[in-house]
Write a structure and sequence with these properties.
Strand content of chain B: 25-35%
Largest sheet of chain A: none
Number of domains of chain A: 2
Helix content of chain A: 55-70%
Structural class of chain B: alpha/beta
CATH class of the largest domain in chain A: Mainly Alpha
Oligomer: heterodimer
Number of strands of chain A: 0
Helix content of chain B: 25-40%
CATH topology of the largest domain in chain B: FAD/NAD(P)-binding domain
Number of strands of chain B: 26
């Protein structure tokens, strides 16, 4: 169990820096890129800002299913749009840790690394800034 | 040119295409593969296809997008059980393509695709038109294996034993049967074996039919004859049934007398290992396969589903064609409307990269499905997914079900969020 779990954790982190080699994620027999072998705590180092925005967008598209397009809710579900990067980031981190009680958000937030949560928060934070 | 001059002229005189062309100006490029403007065709206007069309336009307005859907409006399977339970009307779950057309500049054509030429990058519509594409997205949903159940057929489904597993006339038929059933009648529900569309759906259906019967026909019973040994959210449903509808719902596992050996539409019975079960209303949900056009385009495997590359949902059989939603094999993701829309967004982003000559970025996929057990009693399942060397997997430690010991407050909140979920996802896709 334990080694398997470590492999999975490695992959969670590997997804972030792997933009330039996405095909290698798929190919089990391809040579392992250095980023995968690197210890998990190393944050994605010099990621191209455009790629970071793109990653933030891909991650954020998942939110719109429940929270509305661009995070603008038309129902009782809270809007993400209009909130600051800092607010969204700390809310998601609190859902992830369980510090903030939720019905379903904890289960979702646990699916993202702190780095990914930051990218999601930045995406929505910037979106709100742009259109205001 | 992927479209003949004659076909092009036909398009111009047809009202639908004429108005759609207005969106892009009167340029032939809209349909010409190889023109300066890239053209993506999406087949199927459900959760997957409509989301792909909208998000392609939203993420890259330079791409022209054509959505081909034979129905003028779409009735969602999600919340169709709420209609059966008397909590929603058909109108509430019906969505048009107006916003896709007018707000997002999608060229919506009401027609049916009869064939796809993957080598040429063209497809043919029932109306005779041939349309070219740079990339094709096929989101055909499901079709049924009617012949897997002796005595059952499409004709029986449309007259006496509806499946109601594609919302619309089938939902109306089942709803009417429930309304005209006598107090004290028996409703038989026959869910299929895995994999099938909406794994918790048959059990939400049993719950909301039970809600209707408890309110209007309290002497009635529900018998579930299952092709499986266990089912989605089983603990949560079973607990909810005991609490809200004690004694009303009986579930038989496949080996416990649930396996359907055949049906008799005249006698209104279902044949099982334990003998014939008589129903006043019989809802047979047959085993499923990918929607018809997936077969016609040669996109299916021997099991009747479509294998895809999980980073872009591009078919592993035909290059340039992406298959999303219930029809595709998406690893750990369930066949749900929400999953289809998530796949649609990821596919839109992947197509934009591919049309620019770039590799698709690593996807991030998600699923959120609510099931209503009673009007104030909701449960949910969530999943966050990523790529692994073995395909799409759930991220360990994430997702999962409403806790078994959830408080009444939490269950009520989930029921309220279920409504919010429906409003927002419908608008995210068709609005």
């Amino acid at each position: 169990m334990l080694p398997k779990k470590n492999v999975m954790l490695g992959l969670v982190f590997a997804v972030v820096p792997l933009f330039h080699a996405s095909s290698t994620v798929m190919a089990a027999d391809a040579p392992t890129p250095a980023t995968v072998a690197a210890p998990a705590p190393t944050p994605a180092p010099a990621m191209d800002p455009a790629k970071m925005r793109e990653r933030g967008q891909i991650l954020a598209l998942s939110c719109s299913g429940c929270h509305g397009t661009d995070g603008k809710s038309s129902s009782i579900i809270p809007s993400i749009y209009g909130k600051t990067t800092g607010y969204i980031e700390s809310a998601l981190l609190d859902f992830k840790s369980g510090a903030r009680v939720s019905t379903v958000m904890g289960r979702h937030a646990k699916g993202y690394t702190p780095e990914e949560i930051h990218l999601i928060a930045e995406y929505f934070g910037n979106l709100s800034k742009k259109k205001n | 040119m992927s479209i003949s001059r004659r076909d092009f002229n036909k398009l111009l005189v047809s009202g639908v295409a004429g108005s759609a062309f207005g969106v892009f100006g009167m340029s032939g490029n809209a349909f010409a593969a190889g023109g300066s403007k890239k053209h993506v065709v999406v087949v199927g206007g459900g959760f997957g296809g409509a989301a792909t069309a909208k998000y392609l336009r939203k993420l890259d307005p330079s791409i022209s997008v054509t959505l081909i859907e034979q129905k003028l409006s779409y009735v969602t399977c999600p919340f169709s059980n709420w209609v059966l339970g008397g909590l929603r009307t058909m109108k509430d779950i019906t969505h048009t393509y107006t916003a896709l057309r007018t707000k997002h500049g999608v060229n919506v054509i009401a027609d049916r695709v009869v064939s796809v030429d993957a080598a040429k990058g063209t497809l043919r519509l029932a109306g005779g038109r041939v349309i070219g594409y740079d990339r094709l997205v096929v989101s055909p949903g499901i079709d049924f294996k009617y012949d897997a159940i002796p005595g059952y057929s499409q004709k029986i489904a449309e007259s006496k034993m509806p499946h109601a597993w594609q919302a619309g006339p089938q939902t109306i038929l089942l709803h009417r049967q429930l309304q005209t059933m006598k107090n004290g009648g028996t409703v038989v529900i026959c869910p299929p074996d895995n994999p099938f569309r909406c794994p918790p759906g048959p059990y939400e259906r049993a719950s909301l039919i039970a809600h209707y019967l408890k309110t209007h026909k309290p002497k009635s019973k529900i018998v579930i004859l299952d092709a499986k040994e266990k089912f989605s959210k089983q603990g949560l449903f079973t607990k909810g049934w005991e609490r809200l509808y004690p004694g009303m719902i009986t579930w038989h596992s496949s080996t416990g007398g649930g396996k359907v050996l055949g049906v008799d539409a005249k006698a209104m019975t279902v044949e099982t290992d334990l003998g014939a079960v008589k129903g006043d209303v019989i809802n047979v949900i047959p085993a499923q396969k990918a929607g018809k056009i997936a077969f016609e385009a040669g996109l299916t495997n021997e099991k009747g589903w479509c294998p895809v590359n999980p980073s872009s949902f591009e078919s592993t059989i035909h290059q340039g064609i992406h298959v999303i939603g219930d029809a595709c094999i998406a690893g750990a993701m369930p066949k749900s409307g929400f999953a289809a829309s998530s796949q649609g967004k990821v596919t839109a982003a992947a197509i934009i990269n591919l049309l620019r000559g770039q590799e698709p970025a690593p996807p991030s996929l998600v699923n959120t499905c609510y099931s209503l057990i009673g009007p104030k009693y909701g449960v949910s399942v969530a999943g966050v997914y990523q790529l692994s060397p073995t395909g799409i997997v759930e991220i360990p430690g994430s997702g999962g079900l409403t806790p078994a010991d959830a408080s009444d407050d939490q269950l009520e909140q989930e029921a309220i969020f279920a409504e919010g979920w429906y409003t927002n996802i419908s608008k995210d896709i068709w609005g």
